[in-house]
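User: Hey, quick favor. My workstation is busy. Could you predict this chain's structure for me?
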Amino acid sequence: MQRLGNHEVGIEQGSQILFSDYLDGGAMWTGEGPRELRRLVDFSQPFRAPPAVQVSLSMWDVDQKHNGRMDLSADMVTAEGFVIVFRTWGDSRVARVRADWLAIGALGSEDDWEVE
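Assistant: No problem, here it is.
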Protein backbone atom coordinates (compact mmCIF):
# COMPACT_ATOMS: atom_id res chain seq x y z
CA MET A 1 0.00 0.00 0.00
CA GLN A 2 1.23 3.48 -0.81
CA ARG A 3 0.53 5.86 2.07
CA LEU A 4 0.33 9.50 1.00
CA GLY A 5 2.01 11.69 3.60
CA ASN A 6 0.62 15.06 2.67
CA HIS A 7 -2.76 16.54 1.95
CA GLU A 8 -2.15 17.29 -1.73
CA VAL A 9 -2.90 14.28 -3.93
CA GLY A 10 -2.52 14.51 -7.68
CA ILE A 11 -4.51 12.47 -10.18
CA GLU A 12 -3.58 12.61 -13.84
CA GLN A 13 -4.99 10.55 -16.67
CA GLY A 14 -4.43 10.22 -20.37
CA SER A 15 -5.01 8.20 -23.50
CA GLN A 16 -2.45 7.34 -26.16
CA ILE A 17 -2.62 5.47 -29.45
CA LEU A 18 0.43 3.23 -29.25
CA PHE A 19 0.51 2.21 -32.91
CA SER A 20 -1.50 1.68 -36.09
CA ASP A 21 0.69 -0.93 -37.77
CA TYR A 22 -1.91 -2.01 -40.33
CA LEU A 23 -1.44 1.36 -42.06
CA ASP A 24 2.24 0.89 -42.86
CA GLY A 25 2.86 -2.85 -42.50
CA GLY A 26 4.53 -2.46 -39.10
CA ALA A 27 5.89 -5.31 -36.99
CA MET A 28 2.82 -5.79 -34.81
CA TRP A 29 0.70 -6.42 -37.93
CA THR A 30 3.14 -8.33 -40.16
CA GLY A 31 5.63 -9.87 -37.71
CA GLU A 32 5.68 -13.11 -35.77
CA GLY A 33 7.25 -14.15 -32.51
CA PRO A 34 7.99 -11.83 -29.57
CA ARG A 35 7.40 -8.14 -30.31
CA GLU A 36 7.53 -5.16 -27.98
CA LEU A 37 6.71 -1.47 -28.21
CA ARG A 38 7.46 1.23 -25.61
CA ARG A 39 6.01 4.74 -25.40
CA LEU A 40 7.16 7.42 -22.96
CA VAL A 41 4.50 9.37 -21.05
CA ASP A 42 5.46 12.65 -19.35
CA PHE A 43 3.27 13.99 -16.55
CA SER A 44 2.12 17.61 -16.89
CA GLN A 45 3.91 18.33 -13.60
CA PRO A 46 6.04 16.09 -11.40
CA PHE A 47 4.66 14.17 -8.45
CA ARG A 48 6.51 14.30 -5.12
CA ALA A 49 7.57 10.67 -5.59
CA PRO A 50 6.78 7.98 -8.16
CA PRO A 51 2.96 7.64 -8.23
CA ALA A 52 0.85 4.52 -8.56
CA VAL A 53 0.19 4.04 -12.29
CA GLN A 54 -2.52 1.90 -13.86
CA VAL A 55 -2.64 1.24 -17.61
CA SER A 56 -5.55 -0.35 -19.42
CA LEU A 57 -6.48 -1.29 -22.94
CA SER A 58 -9.08 1.08 -24.36
CA MET A 59 -8.97 -0.06 -28.00
CA TRP A 60 -7.57 -3.22 -29.55
CA ASP A 61 -7.95 -4.13 -33.23
CA VAL A 62 -6.70 -7.62 -34.09
CA ASP A 63 -6.91 -10.11 -36.94
CA GLN A 64 -9.66 -12.64 -36.17
CA LYS A 65 -7.79 -15.50 -37.91
CA HIS A 66 -4.97 -15.51 -35.35
CA ASN A 67 -4.75 -15.79 -31.58
CA GLY A 68 -4.98 -12.46 -29.79
CA ARG A 69 -2.11 -12.28 -27.31
CA MET A 70 -1.29 -9.13 -25.38
CA ASP A 71 0.63 -7.89 -22.36
CA LEU A 72 0.24 -4.22 -21.34
CA SER A 73 2.12 -2.68 -18.42
CA ALA A 74 3.71 0.43 -16.93
CA ASP A 75 7.50 0.39 -16.55
CA MET A 76 10.19 2.78 -15.29
CA VAL A 77 7.73 4.86 -13.23
CA THR A 78 9.29 8.07 -11.89
CA ALA A 79 7.91 11.29 -10.43
CA GLU A 80 8.13 12.81 -13.94
CA GLY A 81 6.58 10.04 -16.06
CA PHE A 82 6.61 6.38 -17.07
CA VAL A 83 6.81 4.04 -20.05
CA ILE A 84 3.82 2.14 -21.46
CA VAL A 85 4.94 -1.31 -22.62
CA PHE A 86 2.91 -3.38 -25.11
CA ARG A 87 3.99 -6.94 -25.93
CA THR A 88 2.62 -9.65 -28.18
CA TRP A 89 4.00 -12.98 -29.38
CA GLY A 90 3.35 -16.01 -31.56
CA ASP A 91 1.30 -15.45 -34.69
CA SER A 92 -0.82 -12.60 -33.23
CA ARG A 93 -1.56 -9.84 -35.74
CA VAL A 94 -2.35 -6.59 -33.98
CA ALA A 95 -3.53 -3.76 -36.20
CA ARG A 96 -3.70 -1.00 -33.62
CA VAL A 97 -3.86 -0.34 -29.89
CA ARG A 98 -4.86 2.56 -27.66
CA ALA A 99 -3.97 2.59 -23.96
CA ASP A 100 -5.52 4.69 -21.21
CA TRP A 101 -3.61 5.43 -18.02
CA LEU A 102 -4.18 6.84 -14.55
CA ALA A 103 -1.53 8.08 -12.11
CA ILE A 104 -2.25 8.84 -8.44
CA GLY A 105 0.32 10.18 -6.01
CA ALA A 106 1.42 12.85 -3.58
CA LEU A 107 2.17 16.32 -4.89
CA GLY A 108 4.74 18.73 -3.57
CA SER A 109 3.55 21.70 -1.57
CA GLU A 110 4.78 25.26 -1.04
CA ASP A 111 5.24 24.25 2.62
CA ASP A 112 7.70 21.44 1.77
CA TRP A 113 11.26 21.94 3.02
CA GLU A 114 14.05 21.35 0.55
CA VAL A 115 17.17 20.26 2.44
CA GLU A 116 20.37 20.07 0.43
